[in-house]
Automatic annotation (TrEMBL):
PPR repeats lie at residues 144-178, 179-209, 211-245, 246-280, 281-315, 316-350, 351-385, 386-420, 421-455, 456-490, 491-525, 528-562. Keywords: Repeat. InterPro entries: PPR-containing_protein, PPR_rpt, TPR-like_helical_dom_sf. SUPFAM superfamilies: HCP-like. This is Pentatricopeptide repeat-containing protein. It comes from Papaver atlanticum. The keyword Protease does not apply. Belongs to the PPR family. P subfamily. Pfam families: PPR (PF01535), PPR_2 (PF13041).
Amino acid sequence: MPLRFLIRKSQRWKLNTNPCRFSPSFSLHNVSVNKTNNRETENVNEDNKNGLPPPPLAEGIFKSGPKLGSYKQGDSTFYSLLMGYADSKDFMNLESVLDRMKRERRVITEKVFVYIFKACRNAHFPDKAVYLFDRMAEFQCRQSVRSFNSVLNVLIQEGRFDQALSFYSYVVGKGISPNGLTFNLVIKTMCRMGLIDRAIETFRDMSCTPDLYTYSTLIDGLCKENRIEEAITLLDEMQSEGCFPNEVTYNALINGLCKKGDITRASKLVENMFLKGCIPNEVTYNTLIHGLCLKGKLEKAVCLLDRMVADKCVPNHVTYGTIVNGLVEQGKVADAVLLLDSMEDRGHRPNEYIYSSVVSGLFKEGNSEGAVRLWQKMIEKGFKPNTVLYSVLIDGLCRQGKPDEAKNILLEMANHGCIANAFTYSSLMRGFFEAGNCGKALQIWKQMEHNGCSPNEVCFSVLIHGLCKDGKLKEGLMVWKHMLGRGCKPDVVAYSSIIHGLCEAGFADGGLRLLNEMLCLDSKSQPDIVTYNILFHGLCKQNKISQAVDLLNSMLTQGCDPDLVTCNIFLKSLAEKLNPPQDGREFLDELVVRLSKRRRVLGAAKIVEIMLQKFLPPKASTWERIVEDLCKHKKVQAAIDKCWHELFG
């Protein structure tokens, strides 16, 4: 059989992982070759004996082709080498072949370059794709929108959004006209970057007709920026242009409306889907169920679950998990357990997150026996608990005042090969601190470090809070310095704990300095009402009532509203520290007026409620002001009557 026939035939054979090496089933023993080829084969065998990988056989035949007489090195054979190296991500040899083709003035088609660009994407080499795109002209290959889109997609897939937009501007500036796919890629990139106005401008300047993907991408981008009304307007425009939305388009809008809390419009949009012949999928139902749970409408969420099943749309773990979490957060743990059983009856096995949510809920409502029974039931069904589930059980036992039992679970956890995390250890430390056993809490801290678990901000906060609450301010400050030295940023709990320790030790001024430091940090470390109440108590304890009032005014300016604890601190101080003592009625009345002037109506109403509970009614003018702020004019009297009925009825 002629050698050239075997070579042509071999191009159709499957390649191995090594570029351009033929299948092992291929043999040359029936082919008559010259002595040079025999020596090459012997060298290959020798390399195999030495454990070295043989060179690509196809390339060896390729280089020796002219010596065989009738074989000619053609462009198609170069293409085979290029594709082989591209598939194996061997870009060094690939570029060597490219350089040789350039020297021999060979042509490479755009199709081959697109294939190489896809290989660059698979190899995560976006810069290589841009570099080779610029070299296309060297191979007499004209750049078109096809190769342009291919490289643009590589950059976007790799998250190089800024570079993608720069590349787009650069290529369009060279005279390549973008098509619909180009605009879709660019608009998608702009939406991901939050440049929604720029995306709309690009959309309006499109030189071709936008398609379903274009509209859906832009609508999703508008919804994520909470610009729902513009998204709905675009939906209407889309349909007037003869482009009809699909479930992806509707899901983006429904998700946006649910996040905004507008469940009514979201539900109407689902009805509109049916009218348009667009069947909701599991994403649609899950989104709407999640929105209903966020609004606390659990009964409607469960009804929607039943409708979902009736519509032959199979609920998944996301569906059940969302409703279970909603029920647990509303304190309806018994209903969550029933839904868990219903889930299993329908053939869905709960995952660890659903079990952990229900177990945690049972512990939070004080039903530790029910939590343990559910845990045992889970084990009996063959479910192997993981770190998440063990941590929930340990945290629950600690909340029930059983840290020693929780510590035994930690040992069981280690025996089953589950590694405890920072949450596990922080729960145990908190449990021992709350049980008044500071020594065991410190042992857990040492055990955590010994086991190689790096403490996070929560662990440090628990340790600092426990030490300061136990009166060990010096040790708490040492942990504070250690925390800062490790590069951990203290959160509001850690700051509040240190401030509490300083105030209890009579160093309220030091606490104020830390408060000023908190105000300069990010939202995670901003003081809350608990922090301020600690300082109010510390200042009033040192008879610095005027300084506490100044701090109260500062707190109002920061947008933090007082609560019942705040009122009690000041009422007690005014009654015990002043001469003559005051009942605090004027103080609270003035506080209501200040909140009302700042348009903090709910905060003002809360103080009025506290005043009435303490039989310190506000002035008539203050009462009138707050009621007018809370109620519409025609319903003022009804609101007043209802309020008096609830208080004294």
